[in-house]
Design brief:
Blueprint: H1 2-9, H2 12-17, H3 20-23, H4 31-50, H5 61-72, E1 79-85, E2 91-99, H6 109-118, E3 123-129, H7 139-152, E4 158-166, E5 169-172
Parallel strand pairs: 3-4
Antiparallel strand pairs: 1-2, 1-3, 4-5
Helix pairs in contact: 4-5, 6-7
């Protein structure tokens, strides 16, 4: 069964990221095994998130990227996630703010600011995935990020980065000097 799963999906990460209905298409994989694999994926994600809690996020950037890749890289539709941080850059909350289609997620700067203020966050890290696998930022990604920066800056909310996650890696808008 393991060989069949790897043959169909390509890697263990993609097996764990696959929806249960697609797992069940593999001969020998039923609902129970698919459920067990989804439990393993959730446990792995919680373990990685646990490495981020109660410590400054910016000092463990590789842990942040590993967690984000596990949480988002193999999603079949776009999701927009925000890591809300306190003044010491410790994680307050990790929330999926929007879910979209295979190539678009609506993002509203007002909702980003509203939630940051509700949580008393002084900084945020924006994240979204590209289900195509290519993490290259689009013009819409760049424009939306600039609108969020423009909305947050006067309120003292720093945007540390906007990371785009793909199966083939990630892109940092800050690293690309786009914010």
């Amino acid at each position: 069964m393991a060989k069949a799963l790897l043959e169909k999906f390509g890697s263990l990460a993609e097996v764990l990221g696959a929806p249960a209905n697609l797992l069940c298409e593999v001969p020998g994989i039923g609902a129970a095994v698919a459920g067990d694999l989804k439990i393993l994926a959730a446990l792995n994600q919680r373990m990685l998130k646990g490495q981020l809690v109660n410590r400054p996020i910016l000092t463990s950037w590789s842990s942040v990227m590993e967690y984000c890749r596990t949480a988002m890289a193999y999603e079949r539709s776009e999701q927009f996630r925000i890591l809300f941080l306190d003044k010491k850059n410790v994680l307050i909350a990790d929330e999926v703010q929007q879910r979209g289609t295979v190539d678009h997620t609506p993002v509203y700067p007002r909702e980003v600011v509203k939630r940051a203020l509700e949580l008393s966050a002084t900084a945020i890290i924006l994240l979204h995935n590209h289900p195509s696998g290519d993490p290259t930022p689009s013009r819409a990604d760049i424009d939306m990020t600039r609108k969020i920066v423009d909305a947050c800056t006067p309120l003292g909310i720093a945007i540390h980065d906007h990371i785009i996650i793909g199966r083939d890696g990630h892109s940092s808008l800050k690293g690309l000097s786009l914010i």
